[in-house]
Amino acid sequence: MKVAVYPGTFDPITLGHLDIIRRGAHLVDKLVIGVTTNPAKEPMFTVDERLAMVHREVAGMPGQIDVVAFDSLLMDFAESQGATAILRGLRAVADFEYEFQMAGMNQKLNDSIETVFLMADVSLQPIASKLVKEIARFGGSIDKFVTPAVAEDVRRHLRGGSR
Predict the structure, then answer these.
(1) Nearest partner of 8 among 145, 125, 16, judged by Cα
(2) In this structure, how many other beta carbons lie within 10 angstroms of the beta carbon of residue 86?
(3) In a domain, 163, yes or no
(4) How many distinct structural domains can be found in the chain?
(5) Which residues are catalytic?
(6) I want to staple 161 with a disulfide (CB 3.0 to 4.6 A). Which of 14, 33, 54, 156 is the partner?
(7) Residue 57 within any structural domain of the chain
(8) Is the pLDDT of residue 163 over 90?
(9) Nearest to 144 by CA among 10, 15, 52, 2
(10) Residue 161: is its pLDDT beyond 70?
(11) Pair 3, 83: CB distance under 8 Å
């Protein structure tokens, strides 16, 4: 069974993430979406909220898709999931430089797990969770960047409500 891990903070999950998930799930027998912590990114949502959000958004997608939280080295997590590949999405040249360095480091940690890059759909390339949050915080519409349910999650969070 070919297993890939698609790691990220998914804070919040965007249409770009969903595009990579949908396309990546067709490439492997099982896609594990690894929802991780990254305090440097100042998450808007807790890990549990992000897990619930990702579960909801991938429900009904074709393929075997698991959603799992992790707080460890990516390669340790990938090994624990039986992964043979790490799936990463690329939006622009700026992403490539960081992702290239990360892939090289990961290969040094475990050279039996490949990194596979998918280019985001051209119409979705500018979307970044960080920018979605910034637009929302300033009262802008994020409806072109996330699903309606995620947009409501963000609005509810900014109003101080809970899920």
Answers:
(1) 16
(2) 25
(3) no
(4) 1
(5) 17, 41, 91, 129
(6) 156
(7) yes
(8) no
(9) 15
(10) no
(11) yes
